[in-house]
Write a structure and sequence with these properties.
This protein is an alpha+beta fold. It is built from two helices and eight strands, in the order βαββββαβββ. It has helices at 19-30, 83-92; strands spanning 9-16, 33-38, 43-48, 58-62, 73-79, 96-104, 108-114, 120-126. The chain has an eight-stranded mixed β-sheet, with helices on one face. The longest helix is centred in the first third of the chain and has 12 residues, at 19-30. The radius of gyration is 15 Å and the shape is globular. The N and C termini lie close together (9 Å). 15% of the residues are buried.
C-alpha cells in the first residue's frame, strides 16, 4: 500500500458476525469484487470496484479473535505520522486507547481509539 499523508482516510472496515453473508450482500448490491483474506482459521474479505481494483478498498471482517467484542459498524482507518505520539495525545485529550497497538505485516502499526464523545477510529502509522 502506498504511504499516504497524515489525516488521509485509508479505508473502512465493516465488522459483523457473518462476514461471508454480508460480503455477498454488498457484492450484489454495490457490485464490488470480493477477495478472501486468510486469517488462518477463517477468511475476511477485501472488497474492490471492478473498474479500478487498485482504488481504495473496504474490508468486511468477521467478529472473531481480537474483533470478537466489536458490534456491527463501519470503522474508518486514518493515517498518522507517529502512532505512539497520537496515542499519547488521545489519552491526554480525554480519549481512550482501546487495546494494544498491532502490526499488520509490512503495512505498519495500528490501534483503535475512542474519542471523548465515544466514537471509534482506527489510527495507522504506515511504513
Amino acid at each position: 500500500m502506498e504511504k499516504k499523508k497524515a489525516g488521509t482516510i485509508l479505508w473502512h472496515d465493516l465488522t459483523v458476525p457473518n462476514a461471508t453473508a454480508v460480503s455477498d450482500f454488498y457484492q450484489q448490491v454495490i457490485g464490488w469484487e470480493k477477495t478472501e483474506l486468510s486469517l488462518g482459521d477463517y477468511s475476511d474479505y477485501i472488497m474492490q470496484t471492478k473498474e479500478d481494483p487498485d482504488a481504495t478498498t473496504v474490508g468486511i471482517c468477521h467478529a472473531k479473535g481480537p474483533n470478537a467484542h466489536i458490534p456491527p459498524h463501519w470503522l474508518a482507518h486514518v493515517a498518522v505520522d507517529n502512532l505512539d505520539q497520537s496515542l499519547e495525545r488521545t489519552q491526554a485529550l480525554g480519549g481512550k486507547v482501546m487495546g494494544d497497538k498491532r502490526k499488520m505485516e509490512e503495512h505498519g502499526w495500528y490501534c483503535l481509539i475512542q474519542d471523548p464523545a465515544g466514537a471509534y477510529l482506527m489510527l495507522w502509522e504506515q511504513v
